[in-house]
Every structure is written in structure tokens, then in C-alpha cells.
Amino acid sequence: MRIFYCGDVVARAGRDVVLENIKNIREQYKIDVMLVNVENAAHGFGVTPGICRDFLEKGADVLVLGNHFLNRREIAPFLEECKTIVRPANIPEGNVGRGFTTYELVDGRKILVIQVLGRLFMEAVDCPLQTIDKILQTNSLGRQVQAVFVDIHAEATSEKLALGYYLDGKVSCVAGTHTHVPTADARVLPKGTAYITDVGMCGDYNSVLGFDVQAPINRLKRHYVDDRLTPANGKGTLFGIFVETDDKTGLAKEIKQIKI
Questions:
Q1: CA–CA dist 238, 22 (Å, integer)
Q2: pLDDT digits (tens, 9 = 90+) for 152-170
Q3: 33-70 b/e with 16+ CB inside 10 Å = b?
Q4: So what's the pLDDT on residue 225?
Q5: Residue 255, CB half-sphere, CA atoms under 13 Å: how many?
């Protein structure tokens, strides 16, 4: 299975660069499944139903969220309605939406997409390892599904690495998001799981994590936190990963970092 994952889409600059390139990416890399993280797609925080529909209509197959999944109130009904959008799985029970989904290709192959939040320097959530283990009990790699893609939305690199090694050989890919800075460690782990600590963002890199630089500078210089963060709206850059898996085992054959 040939999978492409676009990192955190930040505001209009990120939306534009992804929407403009989805078709070309699918054709160039002969993509079976296109995944997009839309966590920050609406002015830098959260996402709206309209933005989600734009991505799905342009060629995204599954959308992934993060810790800002409920920043926009209007998204709540859409999370219940749409079966191809995934919010964190290890949040308290009773929340809207789903923490994992199974997407079926036209040829019958299936990919399970899961997202979990990290616990270090984040809000309190359930254990990501136990959460994933529970999901995999009824969705094992190579049996019910041909691929398993896990997004860990977390601050700490150590936590992402630990989860990667814990899941090595159990899932197809573990991809880190949230910090918006692409890391240079894309590789296949010893037991066959593709891994990267952070995919990076899709947005204006002439910025501070996708936002205009002045407010973060003010916060750093004066500890003045009342300045509102404003998305940077220069030319966007797309960072993503391409992963190819073996349909028999579900394990990764290769992972490549892509920059457009």
C-alpha cells in the first residue's frame, strides 16, 4: 500500500499548498491513501466542516486532528457525521467523533488510522500505549487490515520515539505531529515499522510555527502573553511523508520525507 501523509496544515498558507498539490502527489507517487492533518487548518487553531469538505473533495481520504480538535464548536456535529476524520483516541470517553477509523480502498484493502495524544507537557489524557493496544486487539495487522497508521500528536521527542519502538512490528507507520518542525529521522525501525519523530507542518515557514513572528517575540522578550497569534500568510511549503508497505505483512518497505 502506498500512503502519503501531510503534516499539520496551518491556516490559509497551509491549506493552499496542500489543496494545490494533492492531485499531483497522488499521480506522481501513485498513492493509494492520502492522509492530511487538519489540526490547525482554520486560522491556526482547529478546523471547520467547510475546510474538511474542501480537503475530502480535492482528494484527501482520511483527515487527522489533534489537541485542538474541538476549538471550533461547529466541528462537533461533523465529527459524528464523517467517518473519515479522526480525533485523538486517548481522550476521556463520551467525546464526539472517533479516535480511529478503517478506510477501505476500492480493491478491498483496508488501512486502520489511529491518533493518540502524548502525555508529557500536554493536557492529562489516558495512556496512549494501552489505548492503541486495545484498538489493535480487534484490528490486527495482516489480518483484519493490510496497514495500520498511527499519528502521535505530542510535544516530547522522547515520548514519540518510545511509542515508535513499542509499536515496532505491530503497525505499519508511527508518525509524530504537533511541534510543526520537521525532523530528519525518517526510517524503518528494526522490526519493520516506518517512523518519523515529526512530519513537520504545511504552511508558511517564514514564521514561528506558522504564525507571524511578532507576537511570539513579544512573549519571549516581555513575557507578555496577551498578544494574539496571527497566522503567517506568505507562500506555503508542504512537508509530508511517503510510506510504502508490504500487503502481506503490513510492514513498511520504505519511508521518504517529502518537501514541496
A1: 10
A2: 999 999 999 999 999 999 9
A3: bbbbbbbbbbbbebbbbebbebbbebbbbbbbbbbbbb
A4: 66
A5: 23
Compute the distance between CA of residue 116 and CA of residue 132 in angstroms, rounded to an integer: 8
Task: Identify which has the larger pLDDT, 113 or 229.
Answer: 113
pTM: 0.95
Give the Cα separation of 247 and 45 in Å (integer): 36
| Per annotation, catalytic residue among 43, 68, 153, 223 | 68
- Integer-rounded Cα radius of gyration of the chain: 17
Residues 110, 145 contacting (CB under 8 angstroms): yes
Contacts for 162-171: CB closer than 8 Å, 24+ residues apart: 163/116, 163/128, 163/129, 164/189, 164/193, 164/195, 164/197, 165/189, 166/129, 167/132, 167/193, 168/192, 168/193, 168/195, 169/193, 169/251, 170/136, 170/141, 171/132, 171/136, 171/141, 171/250
* 180 is known as an active-site residue: no
Nearest CA-CA partner of 29 in 53, 64, 5? 5
The percent of residues above 90 in pLDDT, for the chain, comes to 84
